[in-house]
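Sample A.
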Amino acid sequence: MRILGIVLLSLLGLILLILALVLFVPFRVYAAYREKTATVRIRFLFFRYTILPQKKKKKKKKKPKKKKKEEAPPEEGKKKKKKKLDVGLLVKLLKKHLPPLLKPFRIRSVNMTWFVHARDAAETALLYGAASGMIAGALAIFQKFARRFERARVDLFPDYDGDKGGFSGDVTVSFIVFPLLTAGIRAVRDLFKYKIL
């Protein structure tokens, strides 16, 4: 019995140690998009896992699906009323929950090159202006609320001819699970409280 107790306590201690490591040791994520190929890798301690690109699996021949019987359209009286989204409430919740959701993140590096191109010169200029504002706003938010913002290099160019190569870039971030999890639970709780979800 004594040996069994020691084994059980050792297992419990090991489980608690693993849980503490997962909750409080940073995860590092590397995401890149180059030459129309997305790459996503995650690292935890000395473990590495590649999410993208996935290994190609042999395609199995799909059996032809049987056609489903068409259902009669619902009567007008039975149609569900769509809930109106309260934009003011949504903005209030974003202001409340966005800072704690971003605080666990550490932005290690952002590298991006984007040659903006649209159907004609006028649309390219408009898209270039919109993209510049969007990227500047996103970087400003992360610089303000993230735990640490180390390095960013963003090159944005209008491509009026459409022959420069489009978009490429990579980002490396790390985050701690515990504060992210607690902030996420509070945010979801408020979304259910105000019946947004």
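Sample B, a different protein:
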Amino acid sequence: MKQKINLQQVLIFIIVGGGLIYITESFLMSLGILLLLFVIDYAIADYFDTKKRKREQQQRETERQQKK
């Protein structure tokens, strides 16, 4: 799956990362939390992408059935 880089999203992650380093005072803990955020973000994006593709496939199938 080809991923587009969303500049606004990257900026938000950088701000959150900086805030985490400030709050936790631990780079490794902040890195772990950021990695979890990236995984959750990917999972949510994948879920919505799959849902969108299924909906489009169902629409194409109904259009084919209506043409017959």
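Observation for Sample B: The chain is about 85% helix and 0% strand.
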